[in-house]
Design goal:
Layout (H helix, E strand, L loop, with lengths): L2 E17 L4 E10 L5 E6 L10 H8 L6 H17 L6 E16 L10 E8 L3 H8 L8
Parallel strand pairs: 3-5
Antiparallel strand pairs: 1-2, 1-4, 2-3, 4-5
Length: about 140
């Protein structure tokens, strides 16, 4: 049975080209939870036409020489944190939203990374259908 967590707070949603040369893209959400945001929460926004995205597998493809899962977690944390701090066109920054994550994996780097001591990844959703529609709408922006 899958584990779930839920929270409320700032959510940053961004498109991510995660498989090449096929050009497969997805939409990723990043938020934080825990004491002063010490736990990062990242997940793919489910889109029917797009395969599910395993962020740690994407990280492994970006870092083929790093067979260690901690390096993959650091890559994912850097991707989420950077998407929030240096927003590119096509990023959706929601100041306050309820969210849920169906956890695929949890990892903890040896040292804090961007203020995070733990990372949960998986399938991300927001109960507000308007926000989910806005998040899904980010994907076509990549084609233009």
């Amino acid at each position: 049975m899958a584990r779930h967590i839920a929270g409320e707070g700032r959510v940053t949603v961004f498109p991510l080209l995660h498989n090449w040369p096929e050009g497969i893209s997805g939409v990723i959400a990043y938020t934080t939870t825990g004491h002063f945001g010490d736990t990062a929460v990242m997940g793919y926004i489910p889109i029917p036409e797009v395969p599910d995205v395993s962020l740690l597998n994407v990280a492994a493809r970006h870092l083929p020489s790093a067979a260690n899962p901690e390096a993959h977690a650091v890559w994912a944390l850097c991707t989420g944190w950077s998407a929030r701090t240096v927003m590119k066109p096509g990023t959706l920054d929601i100041p306050e939203a309820k969210w849920e994550l169906e956890i695929e994996a949890t990892t903890a780097p040896k040292e804090q990374v961007y203020g995070h001591s733990r990372l949960h990844v998986g399938r991300f959703s927001m109960p507000d259908d308007t926000l989910m529609d806005a998040a899904r709408a980010l994907l076509p922006a990549l084609a233009g």
